[in-house]
Amino acid sequence: MVERIVLNTSVLISGIIGTRSSLEVLKLILQKKVELLISSEIFEEYLIAVNYPEIAKKVDLHYVHPLLDVLYSLSTIIVPQINLNICRDPKDNKFFDVAIEGSAEIIITWDTDILSLRDKNNLYFQSKKKLFLVTPTEFLSLR
Predict the structure, then answer these.
(1) Distances, alpha carbon 55 to alpha carbons 41, 43, 77, 136, in Å
(2) Which CATH superfamily is domain 3-139 in?
């Protein structure tokens, strides 16, 4: 069975810029070795983030936009019926909403606010469901 993951925007951006571990996670999605779960809200954040001037000047958007199209086509779209309020930054709640609603096993992130929610085993528990909260490097070491 293919692992179901949610990818925080920080990992997408670092992968596009060329951070090795984030890039490896993107490759796993493109090779269909993991299943990416997204919502329209998450994908919209991806689109906005790649067009930030400080990001856009580091990458060729002619390459990035087709990559986003492919990622979208390979993703499972979740329409969360829940609206959790667990993150310090309310904009991060959408990743948990999709993960819980879509029965993902893992949220992959560089975001220290999200990572701070995990226990010593990299787990976060919500409504009897457990989620691994890991960095791309930690995720790759689990495989």
Answers:
(1) 20, 16, 25, 19
(2) 5'-nuclease (3.40.50.1010)
